[in-house]
Amino acid sequence: MRNHQSSRWGWLGSSWLILASLAPAGPTLPASQAPEGKADADAIRAATQAKITAGTAVLAKLRQSLVAPPAGLAGPRGIPDRICAWSSRLTDAKLEAAATHDARVKVLSEALDHAKQLEPWLKELYEAEACGLVSEDLDIAAFHRADVEVRLLREQSRPN
């Protein structure tokens, strides 16, 4: 009798070993050709700022599409969830740019303020039956706010 586990996963395991063996074991550039640390920090800062700019634009468009859906969009289903997800991504990008503990606390405090503003806004739209939100959307916003609050409290409890 054949072992179903090995017959089903055998090719996957073999493929994984082959791919892993092709991955470089260390830096791909010799140390003498590696970019300088300052250039790396500047490039990281620029890329992080680009993430923040793009994330801010996505959030603005998602919020706008919630109250005024673009042509072809049937309704708001999933938009509050996407707003919360993109808010988290934007917060993560800002945290990457935050150099100090105080800066991280400020980023998370601002994220909590935005999350607290999102909840009543969605509730108002839900109660007005303005755009087809469902009660699940309110729960998503409440979860998002609680998640940001936990992240802030954890950051505040860390030593500087």
Structure description:
With 160 residues, the protein is mainly alpha-helical. The chain has one domain. It is 74% helix and 0% strand. It contains 5 helices and no strands. Helix 2 runs antiparallel to helix 3 and helix 3 packs antiparallel against helix 4. The longest helix is centred in the N-terminal third of the chain and has 31 residues. It is flat and about 50 Å long. The N terminus is likely disordered.
Question: What Rg do the Cα atoms give?
Answer: 22 Å
Tell me the overall shape: flat
Summed up, the domain count is 1
SS field, number of helical segments: 5
SS content category? mainly alpha
Q: What's the SSE pattern?
A: HHHHH
| Low-pLDDT residue intervals, each spanning 5 or more residues | 1-35
Q: How many distinct beta strands?
A: 0
Let me know the average pLDDT: 76
The biggest beta sheet reads: none
